[in-house]
Design brief:
Oligomer: single chain
Radius of gyration: 14 Å
Distance between the termini: 8 Å
Strand content: 35-45%
Amino acid sequence: MPPINSDGTGTFRAVIHEDGSITSITFTETFKNLSGSPLVSHIHFGQFRVAAGVMIFLCGGGGQPACPAGSSATFTGTITAANVTGPAAQGIAAGDLASALRAIREDTTAMRIETTGKTLIWSGSSRHKKSPASAGFSFCNGMIG
């Protein structure tokens, strides 16, 4: 899909909750000026501009609630192992939260929000920080689409 110049932007921020093992990730996603209401938002296992499978749904599929209506919104949610859908063909098994998180930390993922006929894509570069109790990561740099 060729890029389309738009005012669409987005941010995604998450906190990883670990106590010896990763149990959940809480997140906040904000999008602005989309061409319409989002149908789905997800994390792909593949860098920006690389065809890749969906790894984790944030809304609109994969056990997550429907996406918020409107062209601009903020929503929060939780990711658990049950929300990891794969992609098995790329070596991420359904339910494998540890592998999904490793892919995010190694900057091999991209965020997407899809509306009817258009997609807003965040860059595959995630910024993350570690602390003894939890770690966090974020995607920003709203791209056009």
